[in-house]
From TrEMBL:
<dbReference type="InterPro" id="IPR011008">
    <property type="entry name" value="Dimeric_a/b-barrel"/>
</dbReference>
<dbReference type="GO" id="GO:0016857">
    <property type="term" value="F:racemase and epimerase activity, acting on carbohydrates and derivatives"/>
</dbReference>
<dbReference type="GO" id="GO:0019301">
    <property type="term" value="P:rhamnose catabolic process"/>
</dbReference>
<dbReference type="Pfam" id="PF05336">
    <property type="entry name" value="rhaM"/>
</dbReference>
<dbReference type="InterPro" id="IPR008000">
    <property type="entry name" value="Rham/fucose_mutarotase"/>
</dbReference>
<protein>
    <recommendedName>
        <fullName>L-rhamnose mutarotase</fullName>
    </recommendedName>
</protein>
Length: 106
């Protein structure tokens, strides 16, 4: 299983609404994530907007590609894009660049 961690930056003025949106993720989005191989997926948000994401998957590129093919993901990404800084025209899920793992306690 591949462990993936990534960073994004939520706009300071949208932190509360970002939390609210993730307290009520659409059921069809949750189903799509599970069906496309996203497991043990967590998001952690710091007060300055730093967002740390973590997930486990067999193949991150394949999981991203499978999600990109779903209608629900296209709708979710379109709604969530305005919450982030420095996407440079990318959708939030396209801006998720995995960090290099340097240590893991098994």
């Amino acid at each position: 299983m591949q462990r993936v961690c990534f960073l994004l930056k939520v706009r300071q003025d949208r932190l509360e609404e970002y939390r609210e949106r993730h307290a009520a993720v659409w059921p069809e989005m949750l189903d799509a994530l599970s069906a496309t191989g996203w497991h043990n997926y967590s998001l952690f948000l710091r007060e300055d907007g730093l967002l740390v994401g973590y997930l486990e998957t067999e193949d991150f590129a394949a999981a991203q590609a499978a999600m990109a093919e779903t209608d629900v993901n296209a709708r979710w990404q379109a709604e969530m894009a305005e919450f982030f800084e420095a996407l440079d025209g990318a959708k939030p899920d396209e801006a998720m660049k995995p960090l290099t793992e340097v240590f893991h306690l098994a």
